[in-house]
Amino acid sequence: MAALVAVVDDDISVRESLQSLLCSAGLGVRVFASAEEFIDSHCLEKADCIVLDVRMPGMSGLELHQHLLAQGCQVPVLFMTAHASDEQSRAHAFSQGALAYLLKPFDETELLDAVQMALRSAWGKQN
């Protein structure tokens, strides 16, 4: 069974391109337009990795990550953002256990490498 990657981003073009990229790499993918949609989906129980946009309307990616941590979530999280100057968010994400913080636009290989690293981390925690 393919690993499942959840992608949470308010930009439909980002969601569609990441879904296509991750599917082409043989991964299962579920995409969500908001943190709230992700929470309501109950996908967390099935996800092996979560890719979060930092800035979204409503609950931000960082706030969603805090929510997941408070729930005891052990699923590896990767962040992505178009805001290179936001060093405080980057530092906060890493201090809370994020495995990667990618700047948009990022290279496809950079994302796939980060996802593979996250999946190895997730599988290591299951054993």
For the largest beta-sheet, the strand count, sense and barrel status come to: 5 strands, parallel
Distance between the termini: 17 Å
Low-confidence region ranges: none
Which structural class fits the helix and strand makeup? alpha/beta
> From the alpha-carbon coordinates, what is the Rg to the nearest angstrom?
13 Å
Helix-residue proportion: 40-55%
The count of helical stretches stands at: 5
What report would you give on this structure?
Helices cover 46% and strands 19% of the residues. The protein has 127 residues and is of the alpha/beta class. It has a five-stranded parallel sheet, with helices on both faces. β4, α4 and β5 form a beta-alpha-beta unit. The longest helix has 19 residues. The two termini are 17 Å apart. The mean pLDDT is 93.
Q: What is the structure about, briefly put?
A:
The chain is α/β, with parallel strands linked by helices and 127 residues long.
Note the topology.
Layout: E1 4-8, H1 12-24, E2 28-32, H2 35-41, E3 49-53, H3 61-70, E4 77-81, H4 87-95, E5 100-103, H5 108-126
Parallel strand pairs: 1-2, 1-3, 3-4, 4-5
